[in-house]
């Protein structure tokens, strides 16, 4: 190989070619130059990822198009990595709708399932990628009937509380009472405390008597997991079964006795301002800890131990929608206030 000179498709320890690196980092001109010199788009890295997987994961629609249409070996859009995921899985999971559109136009097979038996539609529903969900079911409406006993897109969206996705799936004709081994979508929403999704499912007419593979109804599961949200959902279910109405007055009094169920009023969703203040407050606390550590010249290890898991958990609970609602201005205001404009977020 020394006498022949460097190979355009030589790989590093991760199995990456130069084309992998260029695609992953968005270097369009370098991708074109490598293809000009016969770089292969069909070399997989150690995890089975092709350059098109990396470009789709990044959401770079231009490089995805280049990899498909240029070079001596056109990228095969249905190539799967070691987890059996196509580029469409990667783009759908992260909500890259423009890449999804290109891949669908190139006849990528949306019925391919990964090692967890998830289709690209499943991943889009699971992570609340509303626009991608709409695109896929519009192009392939039959996908909503291609389900496994493990899950359906409706179950996955209900589990994570993605109300808009649940509504889109139901409006597109998905059976609200479709079942898996875990029961109905109502089982999933109730178990994970998604009150508003429960309300939507009830209003759509879901069968509350469906049982999971262990023979449990939704109320049976709620009894096994007593919490404020479980009690609230149980009250919703009881009201629905008695009156056919899936709404409870917010002024309903709390009546708790030793051998009685507690009936709680529905949670009022916080306003955008409240969400913004919550994000700002938690970030301020975290920055105070970092500042204190810097003043005391703590080591990085001390800094890591000092940061409370409480703060990290609170940040992990902030949804993508909450962050978009509060906006980037919240982060900028807090950072300016604390005086860490360059390196705070590298610590986080």
Automatic annotation (TrEMBL):
The keyword Metal-binding does not apply. Keywords: ANK repeat, Repeat. One of its GO terms (cellular component) is cytosol. GO terms for biological process: ephrin receptor signaling pathway. It comes from the Eukaryota. ANK repeats lie at residues 14-46, 47-79, 83-115, 149-181, 181-213. One of its GO terms (molecular function) is ephrin receptor binding. Pfam families: Ank, Ank_2. InterPro entries: ANKS1/Caskin, Ankyrin_rpt, Ankyrin_rpt-contain_sf. This is Ankyrin repeat and sterile alpha motif domain-containing protein 1B.
């Amino acid at each position: 190989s020394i006498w022949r000179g460097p190979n355009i498709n030589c790989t590093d320890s991760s199995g990456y070619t130069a084309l992998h690196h260029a695609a992953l980092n968005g270097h369009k001109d370098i991708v074109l130059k490598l293809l000009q010199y016969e770089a292969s788009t069909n070399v997989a890295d150690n995890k089975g990822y092709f350059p098109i997987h990396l470009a789709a994961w990044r959401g770079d629609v231009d490089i995805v198009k280049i990899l498909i249409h240029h070079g001596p070996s056109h990228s095969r859009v249905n190539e799967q990595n070691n987890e059996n995921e196509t580029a469409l899985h990667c783009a759908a999971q992260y909500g890259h709708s423009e890449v999804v559109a290109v891949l669908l136009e190139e006849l990528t097979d949306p019925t391919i399932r990964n090692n967890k038996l998830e289709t690209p539609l499943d991943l889009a529903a699971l992570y609340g990628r509303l626009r991608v969900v709409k695109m896929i079911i519009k192009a392939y409406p039959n996908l909503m009937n291609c389900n496994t006993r493990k899950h359906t897109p409706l179950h996955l969206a209900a589990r994570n509380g993605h109300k808009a996705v649940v509504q889109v799936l139901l409006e597109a004709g998905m059976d609200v009472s479709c079942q898996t081994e875990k029961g109905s979508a109502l089982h999933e929403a109730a178990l994970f405390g998604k009150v508003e999704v429960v309300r939507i499912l009830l209003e759509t007419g879901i069968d509350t008597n469906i049982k999971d593979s262990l023979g449990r109804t939704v109320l049976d599961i709620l009894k096994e997991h007593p919490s404020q949200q479980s009690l609230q959902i149980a009250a919703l279910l009881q009201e629905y079964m008695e009156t056919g109405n899936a709404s409870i007055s917010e002024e309903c009094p709390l009546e708790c006795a030793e051998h009685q169920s507690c009936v709680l009023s529905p949670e009022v969703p916080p306003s955008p301002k409240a969400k913004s203040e919550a994000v700002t407050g938690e970030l301020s606390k975290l920055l105070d800890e970092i500042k204190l550590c810097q003043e005391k010249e703590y080591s990085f290890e001390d800094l890591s131990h000092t940061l409370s898991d409480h703060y990290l958990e609170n940040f992990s609970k902030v949804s993508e929608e909450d962050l978009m609602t509060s906006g980037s201005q919240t982060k900028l205001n807090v950072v300016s206030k604390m005086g860490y404009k360059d390196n705070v977020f590298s610590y986080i």
